[in-house]
Amino acid sequence: MATPRRWRATWRWRRRWRAGRTWNPEDLALFTQATLQGAFILAKAQGSADVVFPCIDHLRQHVAHLLGADDAPAFTLKETPP
User: Fold this and answer.
1) In the predicted structure, residue 44 carries a pLDDT above the cut 80
2) Is pTM beyond 0.70 here?
3) CA 64 → CA 47, 60, 79, distances in Å?
4) One-character DSSP codes across 35-82
């Protein structure tokens, strides 16, 4: 189990690593496409679309975080339409 000291060190590293990092629309578009295609491949392999909704929601949270918006989950699996 990580100690509080180790957690602080990890967060300091993350802040330093992210400082000055930018993203570009082309990379985000490729990441979006890869996420969606991967989710659909998993759904086909599992025979159920249930895996797609969490993948899309995680993608939405990631984009919201990049844009500085609220990154709370948009929905839970129980709230998704049938």
Assistant:
1) yes
2) no
3) 29, 6, 20
4) HHHHHHHHHHHHT-GGGHHHHHHHHHHHHHHHHTS--S-S--GGGS--
